[in-house]
Amino acid sequence: MSYVVPPAPQASVPVAGCADSFPVRRIYCVGRNYAAHAREMGSDPDREPPFFFCKPADAVVPVAANTTREVAYPPQTANYHHEVELVVAIGKGGSNIAGSEANEHVWGYAVGFDMTRRDLQFALRDKGRPWELGKAFDQSAPITPIVPASLCGHLQAGRIWLTVNGQTKQEGDLSDLIWSVPETIAHLSKYFELQPGDLIFTGTPEGVGAVIKGDLLVGGVDGLGELSIRIA
After folding, report:
1. What does 30-94 look like in DSSP terms, one character per residue?
2. Biggest CA-to-CA distance, the chain
3. What DSSP character marks residue 105?
């Protein structure tokens, strides 16, 4: 097949411990999936159905283990925020997936940052408009290599954290998720047919805040290593 313009390269994320890569199809993100974060965003943390937004596949910024990668401070914002998250990599597709079977669809896990232009997000939210300008911009999804579930198991608990210039800003536990990973997959698959290559950012604990050029962000999840970026 020929194309009238050159096709974009396939977005991908390295796999931990080998030379293979995980091809990225779509990025789904869960909003306000930790109660304390919902409160700091001014929302009720009651267990209402989860809601989702998307980022483009090429928003991923793969960061190799034990390295720091520069990420550009994005344009048109004066309030650029960090959000550290557990990321789920889907390896088996499906629709209307039962929660009891959801882990069978998980290929692996990673640490990701849902970087956010908070001022734009809030301005759009207050007008009842979509969040894309605040969430779906270039380089908005830094991510570690993906650890296969066959090696790390299916994560249900464990520390999740983020520091800025060595100071702890976010800290929580995966057990604090309002909607667990299997529940999130089950709910999302009611609305979308999940496919191999999909990534799900599962939400962030409390403590989100602004960063500026030169800041060093390091985040991690127990069993998955660390993600390190510097704002350039």
Report:
1. ESS-BHHHHHHTT---S-PPP-EEEE-GGGEEE--TT--EEEPPPSS-S-EEE-EEEEEEE-S-B
2. 52
3. G
Phi, psi of 133 (to 5 degrees): -60, -30
Q: Rg of the chain over CA atoms, in angstroms?
A: 17
Query: How many CB atoms sit inside 10 A of residue 74's CB?
Result: 16
Can you give the pTM of this predicted structure? Answer: 0.95
Instruction: Return per-residue pLDDT of the chain as tens, 232 residues.
Output: 899 999 999 999 999 999 999 999 999 999 888 876 566 665 666 667 888 999 999 999 999 999 999 999 999 999 999 999 999 999 999 999 999 999 999 999 999 999 999 999 999 989 999 999 999 999 999 999 999 999 999 999 999 999 999 999 999 999 999 999 999 999 999 999 999 999 999 999 999 999 999 999 999 999 999 999 999 9
Burial of 72 (0-12, 13-18, 19+ CB in 10 A): exposed
3 state SS of 140: coil
Total Cβ atoms within 10 A of residue 103? 16
Q: What count of other Cβ atoms lies within 10 Å of the Cβ of residue 133?
A: 15
* Whole-angstrom distance, CA of residue 90 vs CA of residue 193: 11
Q: Residue 5 carries which side chain, given as an amino acid letter?
A: V
Cα(62)–Cα(27) distance, integer angstroms:
14
With CA atoms as reference, report the closest residue to 24 among 71, 64, 56, 57.
57
